[in-house]
Known about the structure:
The protein is of the alpha/beta class. The protein has helices at about 10-25, 35-45, 60-70, 85-95, 110-120; strands at about 5, 25-30, 50, 75-80, 100-105. The protein has a single domain (about 5-120), classed as 3-Layer(aba) Sandwich (Rossmann fold), CATH 3.40.50.2300. Helices cover about 45% and strands about 20% of the residues. A 5-stranded parallel beta sheet has the order 2-1-3-4-5, with helices on both faces. α2 (about 35-45) runs parallel beside α3.
Amino acid sequence: MAKILLAEDEEVLRMLVVDTLEDEGHDIDEACDGEEAIEMIQQNDYDLILLDYMMPIYTGLEVIQQVRNMPDKKHVKIMMLSAKSQQADQQRVLEAGADYFMAKPYSPLELVQRIEAILHGEDA
């Protein structure tokens, strides 16, 4: 079982992902904006952080940059989930420090498969 933070401002999508990952046995925390995500990251240790790109207060990109500047959080795996799937957007996300990028829309099964690969150290 992994400890995962999901930062997503769309409540319906957040609920769907949380339900899907909890069904797989993971412990999920939720944040509805970038500021809440940063506060939770500072207070908790996560195996994986799932971030929406376009969120209020801080974007997913800004959250990544802040996390990568936290000495005790540099090891945390980060996956960006975004409808902004142009090559330039993906490159910007990876350069900011994300480990993985997944374009929206995605199927719950595809998300679970990618997360399981990441958590088991496989190439996602």
